[in-house]
Amino acid sequence: MPAPIRLRELIRTIRTARTQAEEREMIQKECAAIRSSFREEDNTYRCRNVAKLLYMHMLGYPAHFGQLECLKLIASQKFTDKRIGYLGAMLLLDERQDVHLLMTNCIKNDLNHSTQYVQGLALCTLGCMGSSEMCRDLAGEVEKLLKTSNSYLRKKAALCAVHVIRKVPELMEMFLPATKNLLNEKNHGVLHTSVVLLTEMCERSPDMLAHFRKNEKLVPQLVRILKNLIMSGYSPEHDVSGISDPFLQVRILRLLRILGRNDDDSSEAMNDILAQVATNTETSKNVGNAILYETVLTIMDIKSESGLRVLAINILGRFLLNNDKNIRYVALTSLLKTVQTDHNAVQRHRSTIVDCLKDLDVSIKRRAMELSFALVNGNNIRGMMKELLYFLDSCEPEFKADCASGIFLAAEKYAPSKRWHIDTIMRVLTTAGSYVRDDAVPNLIQLITNSVEMHAYTVQKLYKAILGDYSQQPMVQVASWCIGEYGDLLVSGQCEEEEPIQVTEDEVLDVLESVLISNMSASVTRGYALTAIMKLSTRFTCTVNRIKKVVSIYGSSIDVELQQRAVEYNALFKKYDHMRSALLERMPVMEKVTTNGPTDVTQPNGEAEPAAPEGKPPPSGPPPTSQANDLLDLLGSNDITPIIPTAPPNKPASAGGELLDLLGDLNPTTGPPVPAPQISQPPFLLDGLSSQPIFNDISAAGIPPITAYNKNGLKIDFAFERSSTNPSVTVITIEASNSTEMDMTDFVFQAAVPKTFQLQLLSPSSSVIPAFNTGTITQVIKVLNPQKQQLRMRIKLTYNHKGSAMQDLAEVNTFPPQSWQ
């Protein structure tokens, strides 16, 4: 068999390939020749063939068939064979394949070899791909080499020990005696790997960390080494851009950071050397900046002196002036982390940070924007808002939403006056336009409502802001609402803050009608405008007939929401005109509802928000049932009964608004209303039902079941039974099934009945309906029907399906007569 081509020739041949297909054909041909050579046990060229196979592996082609050949090379006595064999093992083998265990004995023999280079190969391989089993078997040999006087082997043994500790942490104590003299070594390679080993031990074991702090006095040794590096003269062996061994300096600083964290004594011992590093390191080259950055991180992480922390922040401030974008970005990110603890020191660099808002790099812009908002406080709010509003005006669209939200929050916390607050928010709405978040409009409306003395000024400013420009939809929505609420103040010209404008009622209506017919107006904006026009019917005196005409026109709008509003407003004009002025009267002052209790909140700018006084507890809202009754009163009917809910698992109690939507306009056909029970009384089933098990008092009455709902794969069946202790009670068992291919989660069933009935919902069996009808959810409803009237029910279903929230309403009127007679 002819001799195979050399690796150099193979590389040259593959590089001549013009297409990928041609390259693949060359590789396949060479792989076939290598397989043939392996089958013939050709020891002469095994090393050459494995080397070529490794090159193919690096190109991305499969080379797993060479794994056993690597083991044969490792077992060879020739150094050249061992070198390729170990390299192949590191590339082709890992701990997921059992083949690697076959080389354990070879590695053990090579660790005890008389040649240091063979020992080095074995250490490299074990440190690269050794499994936990191999590490347990060979840890003793590694520990011996860690104590040897040969610096070449000690540095490799230290790195191998790091791998052993990661794989088998309980072997950490074995290497503890060997670490005592590692830092006394003069060789920088050994020092570097020793620091890596000590860092790994300290990070993985709190006991080791305490041991090195107290017993080994590790901090003074590291301080001594770092000082020698700083003060030493030029050394060509370790010099990088005029700095002595920056890699070792960075490693030592990281280890000092771990040792000084939450430890006063260790932090005190390293304060001086950190100050020396921070002041003596050359910053003209990137190498020096890397060391300074690690120094800053160490200072910020340990319990350092206040002066040292100020020095660290000043270093980051100098980084902001660097031409390198990466250094500026790192500085902004670091300042953002430290602004909460060292606010005043960061505040000194405010002008430099604000200048970064003008940077061309979008990442730097975003970090500068976040840091600028963190620096805002009551003292600099006017200046910072001016800069941020300028940034909002010129920034890219992807920044506008976050910037607008940040300005809203900052203005709410630190606004020097109500007028300034309103002007700022209006400026944001004018600048950011449709990019502001959905909550901006209701928040501004609430602010305006609460600023009673600013109503005339605000409505005048908003009126002028939207004249002829309807492109900024949030601004138009707020303006429409304010004109509807305070249109009388606009027409009367009562503004004291600035010169009032002369506006007639017809001019105001012209603007609102222009909003209604504008192509730029969204459906929500038209709803605001129509409601504003309706409100003006009670604030204006001369244009009521015109308002009636506008409202009646939109009663036939193709926009369903607009049509519904117009129809309802028409009904107010025709049937309930006596109630119109009361229904459309001015909104009262709104109060913000806070869900959390009073707490002192420390702001990122260093100021604290005071908690609410403890003497006055926050007013607790009425119980859910009371809320529902209050909402039901708005329906203008006294024949709708509240439901007495039993909350399903993991779901909050439903709000009164949902009850209102659910009940709609259910009205019974006949029969006088039954008074609702008092909240303080027990549930309506007072006939001994509540004191007995749920189903013990139920007698089957042969009532046929019905399908109450069947849509979108969700089917709900009703099964009926009558209570034996109270014939007026019907027990309905609902069974929900799911025929789709995905589970329905967070399922909630709600029901409402006319007021002549009383209803109780018990807890469901689950909140998940399995797919493919493999399971069901059951829930029991008890209905008290003392009048023996025909049963009617409205149900509301909510659930999550295929990642979307689903909701549906349905009315059930097909109850069998046996269920209610």
TrEMBL record:
Swiss-Prot/TrEMBL GO biological process terms: intracellular protein transport; vesicle-mediated transport
Q: Where is the composition biased (Low complexity)?
A: 604-614
Listed Polar residues bias regions: 593-603
Where along the chain is composition biased (Pro residues)?
615-625
Where are the annotated segments for Disordered? 590-632
Where in or outside the cell? Cytoplasm, Perinuclear region; Cytoplasmic vesicle, Clathrin-coated vesicle membrane; Golgi apparatus; Membrane, Coated pit
Q: Where is the GAE domain?
A: 701-816
Q: How does it sit in the membrane?
A: Peripheral membrane protein
Q: What family does the database annotate?
A: Belongs to the adaptor complexes large subunit family.
Report the protein name in the record.
Answer: AP-1 complex subunit gamma
